[in-house]
Specification:
Layout (H helix, E strand, L loop, with lengths): L5 H24 L7 H30 L1
Helix pairs in contact: 1-2
Amino acid sequence: MKKINSLHIARFLQVAVIAYLVFVLLADIMKWQQLDDTQVTLAICLIVMTTDIFEKKQKKKKCSRKE
């Protein structure tokens, strides 16, 4: 069984959350549903967390290449 790379999972989560935010904002503009501030805040936090994961992984790769 192939080991799942956490970087791929983080990238998938980031894309999914961005798609969710776009849908929620369009839904609010079109008045399909009321905008829930809690869900939007959590989605933005998830984007920030996954971006942080990418930055840490890139720093580790740079450090391992220098050695």
